[in-house]
Amino acid sequence: MKHYQQKVLQGEHLMYEEMLEAAQWIFQDDTPKDEIASFLTALSSKGETAHEVAALATTMRSFARKVPVQENGYMDNCGTGGDGLHTFNISTASAFVLAGAGVKIAKHGNRKISSSSGSSDVLEALGIHTDITITQTVELLEKEGIAFLYAPNVHPKLKRIGEVRRALGKPTIFNLVGPLTNPVPLSTQFTGINRPNFVMEYASVLQMLGRERAIVVSGAQGLDEASLAGQNTFVLVDKGDLIPFSLTAEDVGLPVTPLEAIRGGNAEENAVIMKKLLAGEQSPYLDTVLLNAGIGLFGYGQAETVKEGVEMAKDSIFSGRALQKLEAVVTYSQQIKEVEVGP
Fold this sequence. Notes:
By secondary structure, this protein is an alpha/beta fold. The chain has 2 domains: 2-62, Transferase, Pyrimidine Nucleoside Phosphorylase, Chain C (Transferase, Pyrimidine Nucleoside Phosphorylase, Chain A, domain 3); 74-327, Pyrimidine Nucleoside Phosphorylase, Chain A, domain 2. Helices cover 49% and strands 12% of the residues. The chain has helices at residues 2-9, 16-26, 33-46, 50-62, 90-100, 119-126, 134-144, 151-154, 158-168, 173-177, 199-208, 267-278, 284-300, 306-318, 321-341; strands spanning 74-76, 105-109, 146-150, 186-192, 213-218, 232-238, 241-247. The strands form 2 sheets. It has a 5-stranded mixed beta sheet with strand order 1-4-5-6-7, sandwiched between helices. A two-stranded parallel ribbon has the order 2-3. Strand 6 and strand 7 form a beta hairpin. Helix 5 (90-100) packs across helix 13, helix 5 packs across helix 15 (321-341) and helix 6 (119-126) crosses helix 12. The termini are far apart.
């Protein structure tokens, strides 16, 4: 491992097989945390490659707990986080809109590490427990077509890595890898990253990992979601083809809006924002979710264009179906806790 560490410190990229070996070393329980931190920092300084990301994702997923769903066709819309822009939980809100439009959502997520409120933080503020069992997760997926997989529940090897990441307090390769390690078999994926110059490489990672269709976006001003504030950079993965394109809010009939208008707060504040927009209250928060859910519907193949996807997202919200999905997941979560606590 010293050889690989030295290569990275010297700014040299690791081959896929080398990173597979390094990833095994990272996940060993006896690997010193300070050495892991040093390696992750060096990778970040050098700049991670598609092969390094794919190798780490492959190793991490091999350690994940299995989620034995009976059906295929699930989608994840988890982003990488780490953009430092302190927006509200866009992809979590979009997940309910997608589910309300009939997309089967298995969303991966975690607590805050380099943000004000991670997806698991805001879910708990909404009344959704993240520590449900694998069996309960499968039941929820089959019953409601949407469930949230809290990363530490499905990745037992993540505990020590999480401690290292929190100590570092800044984005690492694990931000890039997180959305790629969902243990539910995915047919489609919509992922935001905060690196516009890495969009094509990230799309190639999704292709390496076997996604038949996926969309990667880097939003205006480095947002790890599609943004209303300017031009968004995309790559569509479609049956082996990597197709770059760009899009602005105006292109799909939504208003251009500065990032400051979608700032979030802590988990409780973001939960209030989410409930209001899912209830149809007009705001830049709502428009941002319409854009991202619209892209998700296009990625899933349910909409022929992103603009059509935005219209479907509006219908999901204004019909009440998106909010109903939120309420159904909250109800299921509360019922589980009542059973566990008992009379």
